[in-house]
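Sample intake sheet
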Amino acid sequence: MVWLNKGFIVLTILANSTGLIGFKNYDPLISTSSISEDFNNSEFNVNDFNLVSNVTLIDFYEYCYGDDSKFSLLIYLALPSSFKLTSGVSLNKISISFGSIDYYQKYSLKFLEKEKNVYKFEVVLNNTNKKVILDRLDKNERIYKIGGIELLKQGERNATEFKIGQEAYYKGYAKGINGNSVSTLSRKYEELTTLDLDVHSSYYRFHDNVGDFKQKDLNSVYFSIPNDYLDKYGELTNINAEYYEYRLADIVVIKSNVYETLKDYVGVKTTKDNHPEFALLFDYQGEINTNTEYYTFEGAGFEASDLFLPFEKNNLITILFDGGENGEKEISSEEILNYIYDYDKSYYLGSNYKGISNDLFDGIDEGHKEGYNQINISSLDNENLLIYEGNSSWDRFWNTVFGKNEELEVSLIEKVDSKKNSDEIFIDEDDIDEFNDFVLNSSKNNESTYVLRYSLTDYFTYGLLDYRYGDLSAIGRDGYVSKQSIFLDFDIISLTFEKEGNKKIIPAISNPLDIVSDTTKPENPSKDFLYGLIEFLKIVAGVVLIIILIILLNFVFNLLGISFKDIINFLFVKPFKWIASKFKGKKKYKTKSSNKRK
């Protein structure tokens, strides 16, 4: 491609195409100028973009390179008239890498101005970002690789990413920079390889592996890659992604008649004069326990004034669902997402990420980072999980004592080429048919499916009992509480491939996802004690049986004139004595040799 050295180049690039559809020249102006002023010295006219049918990149503009205090990057986009942009939000982003080393990151776009269908943005760079970028750029030839641009439409929760796929190479300086009396700035464009991904999410809940009422969720996404890419660039070795992680407040699922009463107290602090005429307590063992924690007034007498929860956020119910006649309905991820976006109260004042009320967030799992996370996962990475056989605490005790626990090593990136069952691939049972259809369709389209397992989080669930004042007969299992993590705007940034020692990093074009898991009701705790007692009696019976067997064997061997004690001595004692004698002999030999060297 030929370098163009006169003035500045405006390239009109269709976002979902690979070709350039024209260029014009103009001289760069300051970033605070209007769009009309920016194009005043050129033949370009904003009216040329009144009828665009796709998101169109007009120009990527390097402003004042050589003057660090003024250095900035501007983006000019043309949007179809039907595209109603939500401006002024951090969800509008650009995927870009700087310099010769490919390291893609997402940077927010600050909306500056709109003229007709042309929009002007600035790439948001703090001082740290700016220093890192300037250090990566070679002053003799500055390279900017643009993968895609994400834009948030009005009424949407997540941005949509549009492919750009261009490398911009800059040389020289603008007029007035680096002592230049005239502009020597020049630029060329080359096509950048990108990869479109259709990303789906799922999870797998290990019901048996932590402790009473606490389980583990293995969170994952899956997508497919054309085999042409794999043939050309090699196997997938790394995935670079980002997301915002939070733990949701308690999700209360209660039977319909209780829900109708409680719904008026959602997001409202209860007082002595404003409270429901019943209490909710946690069902730990299927029986009333006044020492356990309550969704009720402080103390077992129910005479104090505050409704409270047994987790970090007190005095409030914020996430409440109608669990049907018996309170056992399991709530889907879609229902949970709709709820948190529609929630309009602010007991804890203000909002968190994406304007979601602070009422709905509650800390973070131990060892996890609340808020923004960027991860780079290798195909060599594994997650070690301790899996228990059985649901109850008695199972866990028995398995721990007798070594039945299984340590399971799970690959964080796995290539899938055939139908799998839920437990084999760690995809939720409700999602496994959709997953297998995706694998089959990908294979038909000459694509390979990959699963990325990006996070292991806690899932809590407790049963709820409805306690009516003065009426002990009204106690019964009426619902449950669950607690889990949520991942907002999960977004794959780039993929790394390796073939014969050569690495290739390709920016991904994928729409960000909000990810939350379905709720599952707890096992009935009332069965736990009885089940545990039965298991304990099994252990006792087993020990008694072994003792009886030993007595019978001893009796039989005595009848045969053989000492049972001698058999035990021959099978177990003498072999160990022989091994011990050999070990002592070697030890003496080594000691003697050591003295000899002295």
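Comment: Residues 526-559 form the longest helix (34 residues). The chain has a mean pLDDT of 79.
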